[in-house]
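User: Predict structure, ligand zinc ion.
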Amino acid sequence: MTAHAPGRLPDDTCDRDPIWDRELETASYEQAVERASGIWEKQFAYLMERSPYYARKFREAGVGQARVGLKDLSRLPFSTKQELKHAIDESPPFGSNLCVPPEQVKRVYQTSGTTGAPSVLALSRSDIEAWTVIGTRTYFATGIHDHSSVLTTFGAGPFVAGHTHFVLSRIGSRSVPVAPGDTDRVLFGLRAGLADTLLSTPSFAQYLANRLEKSELDPASMELTHIVTGGEPGGGIPAIRDHIQTVLGATVTEVMGIGDIAPSLFGECPEQEGMHFCGDGHVWAELVNPETREPMMIETGAVGELVYTHLTRQAMPVVRFLSGDIVRIGPSPCECGRNTFRMRVIGRRDDMFIVRGVNVYPSAILAVVGTFRPRVTGRARVIRKTTDVSVPPPVPIEVEVPDGAAANGGLMEEIESAIHSALTFRSKVALIPEKAFGESGYKTRLTVDRP
Ligand SMILES: [Zn+2]
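Assistant: Predicted complex:
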């Protein structure tokens, strides 16, 4: 696996430093704390003065006028998605947490509104720049350099994923934009040799791999060497990653961000052992116990929920935002030279359910199902009959199988037994042909409510 120089993709022989901001990304934890503490002091004063929302929230939490330093951050209350939405609703369009005059809002993104009406994210000129800086470190860490040519399916529509275009242009790579899920144009671009790198969701990369596996087109005839997945977990699940890498003959690395904080905040380097935190100087990350919300050390092996605080955001700054992402911290420092912490997403808090006292994340089910390829496509979802977090066994799971696959010959039972031995709960597997499973999803929902 180490047929490459540290921090570099295989066959990348350029002489560029593979770390975008060497001083910052190789700094020790102590140095990072020191830098962030100074910036946070100003940000805290800024919030008290400019944000009616946080001034009130802090007052209600009994913080008073006393300064709260970075090391005492846990004295401040958490912010939730619902609260931020509420802050917008009480003073639309930008809400009571807008800290700049509206004329200084220079870019507005919308959130998908999967839970209710769309919400907005407002950015000042310097906020746009901060997102670009963080995103540039992120994508550079994955191995994208100025010599890369990047076919991106991260749409430029109303959503924050579109910010990737600023990032690619900052790195100086070639950008070949394609609409999300437009398979024909992606295939055209790859066949024509327009790009050596693909940015897509893992669902889409998986779909592409399944499709090429069945077609006469030899993936080796394409120049594709690198796939960066984002938008959902999957690129870090071995069964999914290995399949995409083997069929498409490319290295898979993943990125992750969160709209309310920064759209590209973590980037996995070619060592492929988790995503590096790339927000230093602009975003402060904490880890908390998912049940008690007590602060945890960010150290190798720790499992917790990520919480974020903006250090420099001007327009809609957020403090101690509960991300809902449950992650496992990886080892550091990394071979690539970065000293920033690495992590792998275990799952979304909202997707988690409990079977007889055991916490289950649907991505763990994907990891098991994926090992049954090529008899399955790799997609699967959990059917939730109630909104209860507790699910009685057997847990209903739908597994996608290729259209026209011959009678399954015991496949259901084999998957049920593999899930039982890996995850210790009983399931009831239904095999669903591709046509019936639904759109060859650009994103796959891991749980579906179906009373
Ligand atoms: Zn690394």
